[in-house]
Amino acid sequence: MGLTVLIVDDEELIRYGLREWLHEEGFNVLEAPDGATALELANEQPDIILLDFKLPDMDGLTVLKELTSRPGNPVIIMMTGYATIELAVDAMRSGAYHFITKPWDQEDLTGRLHAASELINLRISNEEHRANEIVNFSFDSIIGDSPVMRRVKTQAQKVAQTDATVLITGETGTGKEVFARAIHLASPRQGNEFIAVNCANIPETLLESELFGYEPGAFTDAKKRKIGRIERADKGTLFLDEIGDMPLHLQAKILRVLENREIERLGGEKTINVEVRVIAATHQDIKKLAEENKFREDLYYRLNVVPIEIPPVRERGDDAIQLAKHFIQAHNRLMNRNVRQIDPQAALLLKAYNWPGNVREVDNVIERIMILEDKETIEVKHLPEEIRSSTGSVVSTGKNGGFRPIALGLLEKEHILATLKFTNQHKKNAADLLGISRKTLKRKLDSWAKMSN
Predict the structure, then answer these.
(1) Contacts of 175 (CB under 8 A, 6+ apart)
(2) Is 80 domain-assigned?
């Protein structure tokens, strides 16, 4: 559907000519012969307004100021046959996008309308991008209801409302950047840039110029000015991922950013103020690195204002199953598949697995299964061997994994009771995992209960 243009002009012939031409150009058209009608039609939220300065009931500047004070953000082009420099300046200061004189040049007006259309489409694109970010990176999008995840989310939501520097730690693949983006989107800075820098992925020789930018001639290949990522993050959030891999000489410069909120481009002499919030992340123990003089201690304390530790998947209980179901839905959309469920016994094995690759590994496993298997239910046989064979016996075998001789009857009892504990006393799931019927499980439990009485 084309964009909508509101024509505000008291001359019927001018409205007619513009209407016919705009229809040919693919625009929808609204018309108003005076200011009052224009303000009423503005409630229909036109994208572009062609606004005459001289109207029968009020002047165009009054209409312009009223329109710019309302919700919505139309692109307003003022039109007049009585152009003066002062009028043009007043119009632009009051929020007009452009100012043209009557009779206008058709080619010039065409160019202005196309430029306005591009601006509107860019706004729409930015709004869609922001809405997409909220769907994918808000706290609501973070999968997991385990007590430890609820606690971490609550902590992150509280710090999001402040400008405090945050240090996010956790194993590789736990979702540190996801939390950083969620903090940004929940903060007053959410309308501004979130700039991420992975300190481990950018070569040391390029990292400084990426962060701070440079002036022409700063080094051999510096042909023109480059704005660094810190400067781009002004009034927004700078995310320094894998901060533990940052070279020591750059750590001193980052410390200056945190302390003084200022930078200098490479080859530049001008100090540039930056109002930026810093969130850092690492999978390393940077406190230990600081003690070993491999990381600046003063920077560590500057970063560690609010520490947030993201737990690994193996400590999150049923979250592993929730994550698997989430990725099934995602890959159903991407692959046009129809996987509906996970077999209960397979789900229990997913929960029991160690997940050294954390959330990223859950995603990879589900994607691999859905590529290789064309089934509506993910079963045990579809799981990778490392998951199917990882649990072994849930019964302890003695100190340091040593052999502990035990009667077979007692071993069976311990194993069944441990499995029930593992399934939170869910008898159906325990029976599925043990490979016996629920009736058999009940019979064994009843017999042991009688023996204890």
Answers:
(1) 142, 310, 358, 359
(2) yes
